[in-house]
């Protein structure tokens, strides 16, 4: 059995590099669809400091069309196999149990399900069957299979922090009851998924509360709309790739607060941010290392 601790870098936050082998992801769709190009980009991310590559073959942006099950599996399998053969750790970003199983057979190290296991009734069983660490994310729209958040924020009952906290607890219970070990679970509050900018900032403000819980936390803020608004609010050009500095700022604060990991498109600057947070925490000890 592999636990989350086995994937955790000593003394610092883990950096997960995003690899979208998709046609329509919101910031880089189509760039890494070719197998060889995808593998080369993954290696570049590792060279920049990524500890793990999160391989996804289906966009979860609002309004996206679901990819055929076989297509999704055949996009991720060769990439994961090639990276695994070179000793590069990977996670698979999927809501389908069948794709998770294919990825496990290819050598993936973690299952990352943005639906928290709700989109596929077989997902929890497959998670347990593989014996791999899993990441369960909060996404209030239960109709995840149809990407139902195109209209904007879901109803969080007037308190998004409480909703996320309680929902993640239920998802954890679901996974444990299916046979996933507690030590194999990471939680993701789901920034940007059916949430307003105010919801996202409220969740980030409450990040110490989530981190103080008994399970590690992954923060996935990279290039999200609420970060592109940082520049737009100053009247500057704003698009997802221009949100990388704001993403790095979120990385630095998240790492300083003790987040287990950050999931980012631009690894170089976020790895610097993670290392600064580690050095800050260690102080003089870091300078003597």
- The SS-based structural class is alpha/beta
Topology pattern, helix = H, strand = E: EHEHEHEHEHEHHEHHEHH
The average pLDDT is 91
Poorly predicted sequence stretches spanning 5 or more consecutive residues: 147-151
- How many E strands? 8
Shape: globular
Helix content: 40-55%
Largest sheet: 8 strands, parallel
CA gyration radius, whole angstroms: 18 Å
Estimated share of beta-strand residues: 5-15%
Spatial arrangement of strands, main beta sheet: 6-5-4-3-2-1-8-7
Helix count equals: 11
Quote the distance from N terminus to C terminus: 33 Å
Account of the protein in words:
This protein has 289 residues and is α/β, with parallel strands linked by helices. The protein has eleven helices and eight strands. The chain has helices at residues 35-48, 69-85, 97-106, 123-130, 160-178, 197-205, 207-211, 225-232, 244-257, 267-282, 284-288, and strands at 14-20, 52-56, 90-93, 110-113, 134-137, 185-188, 218-219, 261-264. An eight-stranded parallel sheet has the order 6-5-4-3-2-1-8-7. Strand 5 (134-137), helix 5 and strand 6 (185-188) form a beta-alpha-beta unit. Helix 2 runs parallel beside helix 3 (97-106) and helix 3 (97-106) packs parallel to helix 4 (123-130). The longest helix has 19 residues, at 160-178. The chain is globular. The model is unreliable at 147-151 (pLDDT under 50).
Q: Descriptors for this entry?
A:
289 residues, alpha/beta, eight-stranded parallel beta sheet, 8 strands, 12% strand, globular
């Amino acid at each position: 059995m592999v636990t989350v601790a086995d994937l955790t870098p000593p003394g610092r936050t883990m950096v997960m590099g995003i690899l979208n082998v998709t046609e329509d992801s919101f910031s880089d769709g189509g760039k890494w669809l070719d197998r060889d190009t995808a593998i080369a980009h993954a290696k570049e991310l590792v060279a920049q400091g990524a500890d793990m590559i999160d391989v996804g073959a289906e966009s979860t942006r609002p309004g996206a069309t679901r990819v055929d099950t076989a297509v999704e599996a055949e996009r991720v399998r060769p990439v994961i196999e090639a990276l695994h053969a070179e000793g590069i750790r990977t996670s698979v970003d999927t809501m389908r149990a069948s794709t998770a199983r294919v990825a496990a057979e290819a050598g993936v190290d973690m299952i990352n399900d943005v639906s928290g296991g709700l989109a596929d009734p077989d997902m929890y069983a497959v998670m347990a069957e593989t014996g791999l660490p899993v990441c369960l994310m909060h996404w209030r729209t239960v109709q995840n299979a149809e990407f139902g958040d195109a209209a904007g924020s879901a109803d969080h009952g007037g308190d998004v922090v409480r909703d996320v906290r309680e929902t993640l607890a239920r998802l954890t219970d679901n996974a444990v009851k299916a046979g996933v070990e507690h030590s194999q679970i990471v939680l993701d509050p789901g920034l940007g998924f059916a949430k307003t900018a105010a919801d996202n900032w409220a969740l980030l403000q409450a990040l110490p509360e989530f981190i103080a819980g008994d399970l590690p936390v992954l923060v996935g803020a990279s290039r999200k709309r609420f970060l592109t608004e940082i520049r737009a609010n100053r009247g500057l050009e704003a698009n997802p790739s221009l949100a990388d500095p704001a993403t790095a700022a979120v990385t630095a604060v998240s790492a300083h607060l003790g987040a287990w990991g950050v999931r980012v498109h631009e690894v170089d600057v976020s790895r610097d941010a993670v290392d600064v947070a580690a050095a800050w925490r260690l102080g003089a000890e870091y300078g003597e290392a």
